Amino acid sequence: MNSVLDFDFFSVTDDERARALAHAKTAAAEAAYIPYIPASTTLRAVGRVAVIGAGTMGGGIAMSLASVGIAVTLIDANTQGLERGFQRIKDNYATTVKRGKLAQAEMDQRVALITGSVQIADVNDADMVIEAVFEDMGLKQDIFRQLDTLCKPGAILATNTSGLDVDQIAAVTSRPQDVVGAHFFSPAHVMRLLEVVQGAKTAPDVIATLMDLGRRMGKIAVLARIYPGFIGNALFRNYTREAHFLVEDGALPHEVDAALKNFGYAMGIFAVHDMAGNDVGYQTRKAQMATRPNDRRWNDLIMKLCDLGRLGQKSGKGWYRYEAGDRTPHRDPEVEQFIAEESARMGLPRREMSEAEIVKRCLYGMINEGAKLLEQGIALRPSDIDITYLTGYGFPAHQGGPMFMADRIGLTRVLADIERLHAEYGFWWQPAPLLQKLVSEGKSFADLQN
């Protein structure tokens, strides 16, 4: 495969770049429109919000609310956690003041809007509660059982989850119509994306109120239905899975990252893993290994790196090695040898991978998954998937988002590659029926816009 010539169709002309940027602007505006919720819907009043969990996420959500003048009660299980949370909030604001982006008086006003408590009963006067604790279904359900008895009638009960079933959380309450998913992205006071997740019984005015609150906070709110990972993380799973499979099949971490950076990402996926910490989600993945289906390929290299103590930047080594006080990733012969040995142990013959093949395998799985989300009504429109990726996942702006890019390349070409990959790699590459239908009818994702 000629990596230079075959990579060309990922390049964009000045005209295509301009159209991609225009598409992003339109997509951001269209995301606010929900066809089945009238614009005249009366919003619920949101004057005070209780945020449960004073960790990094909860603190960031509290800052986002205070920035638009909303009073916040920040609740944590203990005084130490609450104090750490408040100090983090003050430090974040102080950094913004130091950079000249916020006046000291404004910082003081915002901090004054946030009060702390270690009593969950202090949710009683909140118009909305945003739970922001660990991704543990049992823990979240326990909190929502308490909220059900403590919150006033009509209070919106939102869970900040990146992929748990909102209906399972709503089911433990007597008011599922008031329960909604509010997936903020970290750091919540900086990231502009908010996934609003509609449960089976979520009331229309709850959705409309949370979408409007996102707009007030300067965020782009995108509606999603319940699905593992909703929109963003559903696609991201395909991206990361293929990157890991590529490493098992013959590419090295720096080669995958270089191809993704050449495509337009600011960082490659393995550098991102090392920055975030390879142990993120370790316990969840470990628990899932016992019950996951055995009819498909899985990748556990990242788990094995953790077992070796290679947690990423914080341990000085992960997919790369790091010098003390320097976050620059350096190739590490030790981990590259380990990867080669793992490939041999699994009986996988290693081969060279072109940049085009790396990018296709990382991105086309996302496009295929996006088609499945559209077919199932998880995402309302292709542009909602695009703006989710442009706003929350660092997708290159000049590419316009995965679905827009697929249309530009041509769905016939994209499907042909997906079918080739399905024939070679099996389960994970089963072509989406909607993608096949669009190709057979000579249509594009843009034809699905509403």
In whole angstroms, the N-to-C terminal distance is: 39 Å
Total helical elements: 19
Most strands sheet = 8 strands, mixed
Give the overall pLDDT as a whole number.
Answer: 95
Number of strands: 8
> Pairing-aware structural class of the strands and helices?
alpha/beta
Q: Give the C-alpha Rg.
A: 23 Å
Q: Helix proportion of residues, in percent?
A: 40-55%
Low-confidence stretches: 1-5
Task: Kindly estimate the percentage of residues that lie in beta strands according to DSSP.
Answer: 5-15%
Q: What strand order characterises the main sheet?
A: 3-2-1-4-5-6-7-8
Order of helices and strands: HHEHEHHEEHEHEEHEHHHHHHHHHHH
**Which overall shape is indicated by the principal axes computed on the Cα atoms?**
globular
Notes on the protein architecture:
By secondary structure, the protein is an alpha/beta fold. The chain contains 19 helices and 8 strands. It has helices at residues 3-6, 14-30, 56-66, 79-98, 104-112, 137-150, 166-170, 204-216, 232-249, 253-263, 269-276, 282-288, 301-307, 333-345, 355-376, 382-392, 402-409, 411-425, 433-440; strands spanning 48-52, 71-75, 114-117, 128-131, 156-159, 179-184, 193-198, 220-225. It has an 8-stranded mixed sheet, sandwiched between helices. The longest helix has 22 residues, at 355-376. It starts with a helix and ends in a 10-residue tail after the last helix. The model is unreliable at 1-5 (pLDDT under 50).
